[in-house]
Amino acid sequence: MEEVKKRVTEFSLEAHDLYLNRSVPYLEEPPDPLQFYRSWIAPNKPCIIRNALSHWPALSRWTPEYLRQKVGSKVISVAVTPNGYADAVSGKYFVMPEERQMTLSSVLDIIEGKGQLEKAVFYVQKQCSNLLEELPELTDDVEPHISWMSTALGRLPDAVNFWLGEASAVTSSESPRQQRCVYNRVCVCVDDAFTVSVHKDHYENLYCVVSGEKNFILLPPTDRPFIPYGLYQPAVYHQRDDGEFEVVEQLGSEVPWIPLDPLNPDLEQYPQYRRARPVRCSVKAGEMLYLPSLWFHHVQQSHGCVAVNFWYDMEYDIRYNYFQLLESLCGAASAAGPPGKSSVGL
Description:
By secondary structure, the chain is α+β, with helices and mostly antiparallel strands.
């Protein structure tokens, strides 16, 4: 098994030497579909595209005042946590937020610090086409799809997601809770200081910043041998009448999740992460990040950042097969390691 560890480590390091960039390149205009497929989608490499959103009305319209006027009275599903850590590892649990029904205006009031100070962090993140079903008034401000991406892939996006948050928010786009509805999904998120672990998605992702700035930490799929996983019992937060939160254990299978914080990695507990080569990038207003499928990522944002992202389902081809093989080898190598070691990595 030591030989397996050695080979998958060499596999990862060779990918960096052969074709992965040490920083995220910029394209100065929307690309030709065929060229984009050949240069970025097929080799599974990220890039930032400038001047791709200039025709969107959302660039000038989407302020808190506009959102209150257009959809402020709408009742939406709101996720609530005690400390901003949602869909994240806490001790032996993978903890999901409490969900409530609130108007969008009341959520904006909390985020902007108006009214009574709350002992909780609120964000909006409901799945299954809530932009179309709950907030259709906003759909005219953006495109239903990115034409050159749809042409390159030969299909329309599976999800169009709207994000609005404050400076301390750190976000995740997919968790076991969210995977219940993965097709025709449109979600809205208004978040205030919530945090979740680094993760990956099975989508080709176009992340478009309307205002503010998004800061990404990216790790390629080939760095999987250096990224630890653990198994955690699912749980949810519940706020009691006295305002304090408790963690309520849920029935169900253990959830595989990444316990490592890339902002402050515990290299004593996860020494293999020393070999990972994370790439950092900032996506500013009017810019679009192409985040390839299966790339691990962690996201932070500036105050009042507004963004829209388009998820196109990945092709489940030989690239996916190879990644599944890599995951299996990492799991096998970890299982053969010292007794009591719970994380899946090398």
